[in-house]
Amino acid sequence: MSGNREVITGSDFKRMVTGAYSEFLLEYEHINALNESSASDSSGVPGTNILRTMGAAVMPLTDVKDESIGGLARRVASAAILGARGNAGVVLSQLFRGIAKGLSGKYNATSSEFGKAFQYGILYGQRVLPEEPERPIITAARAVAKGAYHAVRANLPISEILTAAIAAGEKSMTAQPVTDAGAQIMIVFLQGCLKG
After folding, report:
1. Cα–Cα distance between 154 and 166 in angstroms, integer?
2. pLDDT averaged over every residue in the chain
């Protein structure tokens, strides 16, 4: 195990969430187009739904006084749950709920603690959708969780954990015959967090 002593603060978490929102601002139309071109029976505009859910999630961060990562994560999760739009938005809000659960009571978090909280988020997101049929967003989430798991166990910095999660998610997407909007949402979310 390496001697990684990285600490993720509330400010870092704010930048991750706003980075994800910024990334969805750039990609939501592409996600909508993927949904239209796929053979799935789902209707709606998942990119727009995710953008609105993320917009609701970042709202409490504008003038917050609490700087603890646990407090900020709880606020983001509550706002995302209340502002969730569509199935994709509900899955994302539950992802935030699991992250908040994993960071509960923490002022700062190590990269390992944050990685574990993210894995909680994946589990919460999986619970929302029925297991049959297998949803691409859940398939991507499982691959992402598996990729993040190994990086967390190796005690890598958060940037490397996110990079490993993105690589695992993209690898699972290449195994699919068509890129699905749900799987793309998971990758865009992680890329935004990494950029933030």
Report:
1. 17
2. 84
**pTM for this prediction:** 0.86
Token output for 50: 């995710």
Strand partners, 110: 7
Q: What is the DSSP letter of 32?
A: H
Cα–Cα distance for residue pair 192/170, rounded to 1 Å: 15
**Using CA atoms in the order 186, 27, 58, 93, what is the torsion angle rounded to 10 degrees?**
-30
Kindly report, residue by residue over 112-123, the tens digit of the pLDDT.
888 888 888 888
Burial readout 36-69 (b: 16 or more C-beta within 10 A, e: otherwise): eeeebeeeebbbbbbbbbbbbbbbbbeeeeeebb
pLDDT band at 183 (very low <50, low <70, confident <90, very high): confident
Distance of CA 31 to the CA centre of its chain: 15
Mapped onto helix, strand or coil, the DSSP state of residue 7 is strand
